[in-house]
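S.,

Sequence below, as promised.
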Amino acid sequence: MNSAPPPAGVALAQVLDAAARIVARVAAGKSLSAEMDRAADERTAAPRPALIDVTHGTLRRYGRSQAIVRALARQSHTDPLVEALLWCALYLLESGRHAQYTVVDQAVRACGLLEKWASKGFVNALLRRFLREQKLIEARLQDELPARYQHPLWWIELLREAYPDGWTGVLNAGNLHPPMCLRVNRRRADPDVMRDRLVAAGLPAARVGSVGLLLETPVPVDRLPGFAEGELSVQDAAAQRAVDCLDLRAGQRVLDACAAPGGKSAHILEAEDVALTALDIDAERCARIARNLDRLGLVARVHNADCLELSPWWDGRSFDRVLADVPCSSSGVVRRHPDIKWIRRPADVAAFATKQARLLDGLWRVLAHDGKLLYVTCSVFPQENDAVIEAFLRRAPDAQRLRLPAGIRAQCLPDAQHDGFFFALLQKRG
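The prediction came back faster than expected:
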């Protein structure tokens, strides 16, 4: 979400200092979420909303800020912290949120906080030259695809091949601030009544799907009426379609095989009275599932387990429905996790596809005859989606692909209302 400027008493230089340290570590391969947690643990002086704005805004601009620095630098400057500071400062200059002279001045001051005193002149000169030559630089960047579309070249090429008529739209959507969609817990609230409550609280929202409310403007969850009482959850509008695809019935045994953080597990239990088993290989994420279910007043068997290692968690009774929301490149949600564009490599897509195939093969064993498995990714790369499903159908003669409910496409591309997801519904022939 957009953030306000730093509060009184917190200099912009402090925000740039903390943001540059985080961005430099992410550029070296670290996770943005882990680095943000580290900043919180270290009690960084920069307020978190401002820090989120600068780090996420900078990282969404993959390729652009780097290209600007390359174009303007009159020296070979390879200091990672100084380059990261420049990227952050360029983001703030183009955001228009602060006066230009303020950004330049505070970036120079941040050099001192970073203990890069010798770089003050370099930072000052480069930023001022950018302001003088901005139009010329902008024209030059149009010929550099990573700078123009703010994604790695290999990523651009994969999308251009997959979506020859729509690849630019996918890339542009990946650079936007993500929308904020809510899911109404039907066991505790009515979607239309909840929409009226949001409007009364000054939070206009539109109905999407069966239980979704798309906020006009993202806000912190503590501003949402009914959130603490378990009447609402935050969940992307496209992610909510998974439950619509599962064809749930009361009394069914349902497995959510890669469940953390628990949004789809909770949605399943809100939608129907089923016996749900939720698995995740990460113990901390399992604890998060349990907390989310507790807030919503829902009950499931939550296991910290590898879904492919059956003996620790499976009682031998088949499941009527299996949700396989498998690990993937996350290319459909990159605007929420802008570090993904920095840390992914071309070989990762094939590696994820191999893992996804193993998960499909393993989970097929626990599915009942005539049962249904929903394969889900938050990827827009066909190599992780249709290619994986088609290969599985060739390996599994008892599997057939079913049509999705009306209005739901297998490949959902990101847009202003939702993220990018893929859905494939498979049935095991009896």
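The chain has three domains: 12-150, 180-235, 237-428.

Coffee later?
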